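Dear colleague,

As promised, here are the two records you asked about, laid out in our usual form so they can be pasted straight into your sheet.

NAME FIELD: protein one
SEQUENCE, THEN STRUCTURE:
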Amino acid sequence: MFLVHIPVWIVAFVVAYFFGTEKFPGGTNRIYLWTTLIYLGWFLGSFYVFYSFLIPKYLEKGKGKVFGIYAILFVLIIMPVLVFSMSQLTGIAADELSEMFTLHGFLVYLLTVAGGLFCSILGILYRFSIDWFNNLHLVKDLENTKLQTELVALKSRLNPHFLFNTLNNIDTLIQENQEKASVAIAKLSDLLRYVVYETVDEKTTIQKELDTVMKYIDLERLRILNPDLVTFKNSITKEFLIPPMIFMPFIENAFKHSNLNHSNQRISISFSENNDELFFHCVNTKERLIPVSNSYSKEFYGKINM
């Protein structure tokens, strides 16, 4: 945060030095030192009073009237008096005290006010610019946090209901075919490993995702009398990078809302590509509650541009 103030200090020092040398051409090192310090205090004082005090304490808290009063007092009275007093105390004042109320003294006063006003406005703009930049990053952080939260919620949609059903199916399968049960346990282990560990990254390859989808479909087929009612097609050859588990909610929903133990029910899932576009197609049938027709089709089409 300190680094963003370095340009302000450099500009203030350069301007203060050249103001002093212009006002006292051929002066001594002592005069140049004091004039540089006074002008530096004038510029930076006006800048930081607004940047660090008046804006955060009053303006950003909605106290606009109080901010306006203090700003006017500082620019018109406090800073000119401080500059004049320091000039008198250090003995480098070009004007005598009696000349304050002359036309020349008034012009010097206006010049002091103008310089202080310029630095004050610069402090206001600098403060608002940095606040805007910080708020922009804050908004992005909040958006990222929201996306991460949504992603966690998305991952959690591989719910315990699926796990309970799968474990019950495997338990039944152990009594009938231990070899198939062992394969099912291995697929379930791979699926859980992917959900827990592989989805930490924001992106994963399409091949890993499709491998997980296949394992999920195979486990769901364990509870279906006719597994052929579920079809899966994959013609992906490119290595797309996608968010992990992005397709799983739709596939889970397809199984959830289809009774695949009826011969007229089906699920069709396919992945395809066209140049740099990835297409996802999921269709499932679901029995109606009203006797208009035996079933109807519920479809989802998705496309991802890479």
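NAME FIELD: protein two
SEQUENCE, THEN STRUCTURE:
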Amino acid sequence: MRKFLMVLAATTMAIAPLAATSANAAPKYKVEKTIQYNHGKRVSVTKAAVVKPKHNQQHRWAKGQKFDRRYATNYRVINQPQNHRLYHAPRGYQWVQSGNDAILIGITSGLIGAVIGNALR
């Protein structure tokens, strides 16, 4: 029984760091090294800061890319494309809005079929 508990404890300690690093929710860090002088001595300082995503930045969509609505600005599904002078979406596709762009995406795959820039004002 003692051997079993020792093996269990060892595998838990070995697997725990791997499970923590594989999580997608882990924040990304920007490491910055600077050299400062303190009373004539050279001191190296390392700072780590969390990189924040830029939500106000426009994303440039292209045909064949995978569409992710988290990166779309002003995301909306266009239910009546004829009101925006767009053709009807083929079966399995839908028109969505990202900023002023109209994007035709596959419903199941999420792949972009067409991008019409500045179609929506």
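A couple of things worth noting about protein two: The mean pLDDT is 78. The longest strand covers residues 29-38.

Best,
R.
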